[in-house]
Amino acid sequence: MAERHAISCFVTGTDTGVGKTLVSAALLHALARHHTRVVGMKPVAAGTTLVQGIEANDDVLALRAASTFSVPAALDNPVLLPDAVSPHIAAARAGLRINIAHIVACHRQLAQLADAVVVEGAGGFLVPLSPLETGADLAQALGLPVVLVVGLRLGCLNHALLTLEAIRARGLSLAGWVANHVDPAMLAQDDNLDFLQQRLGAPLLANVAHQNAPDARTLTIKLPPTWQQTLR
Ligand SMILES: Nc1ncnc2c1ncn2[C@@H]1O[C@H](COP(=O)(O)OP(=O)(O)OP(=O)(O)O)[C@@H](O)[C@H]1O
Ligand SMILES: C[C@H](N)[C@H](N)CCCCCC(=O)O
Ligand SMILES: [Mg+2]
Fold this sequence. Notes:
It is a single chain. The protein has one domain (about 5-230): P-loop containing nucleotide triphosphate hydrolases (Rossmann fold, 3-Layer(aba) Sandwich). Helix content is about 35%, strand content about 20%. The protein has 8 helices and 10 strands. The strands form 3 sheets. Strands 2-7-1-8-9-10 form a 6-stranded parallel beta sheet, sandwiched between helices. Strands 3-6 form a two-stranded parallel sheet. α1 (about 20-30) packs parallel to α2 (about 60-65), α5 packs across α6 and α7 (about 155-170) packs parallel to α8. The longest helix has 14 residues, at about 100-115. Bound molecules: adenosine-5'-triphosphate, 7,8-diamino-nonanoic acid and magnesium ion.
């Protein structure tokens, strides 16, 4: 069978807790306006809680809720780890080793089933997955364009520029970025946004205000312009 080419991207962030899940879900909702078969993937999820008697990860559940169809858990979340710590530590504590080649194979299967696959990374771009491998190795093995979520708080400029360097060093492209105002008390938010717009050299897909209860369904986000020709 001929290989199908689903639209896909790797969503990373300047840190953990900066809004990657919110943005990934918003991208899924935006893609669902163009395509019927849209699915999220959280290849490595660290941290579970008991939901209706089953150990589940919040990010995995949020991406499933934003997807237009369901797939086996082994495909959209091949690695589920109980402890909410760095994946390399969570994996060691669970007696597992994260296998990037297996994750790539799962993504390839999802891309056969779907029109679009949004992959949410764990933590920041260089989050360790094993003693020697990082989330950047996973993004590189997947070969996907990257969407960077910048959690606007003091220190984010350094984190954003470091992430940009790491993305480029892997030969990957930054398809777009999102400014997420996670700290309502941050000073000079506009000046920070201006700096990032000039230095990231990629389209700003969304400028997300701080909200009491952010909702991915109502978040206005542009899709990366590089996808325009493939959108239905
Ligand atoms: N614009 C915003 N205003 C207020 N709260 C926000 C905003 N964006 C995200 N949050 C909240 O911040 C928390 C972290 O967001 P989210 O879970 O999307 O981060 P993440 O980058 O996916 O984290 P992780 O590294 O754990 O995957 C959540 O409680 C989310 O609701
Ligand atoms: C548990 C958390 N929500 C993320 N899944 C993992 C974040 C790991 C960060 C590790 C680090 O960079 O220090
Ligand atoms: Mg998340």
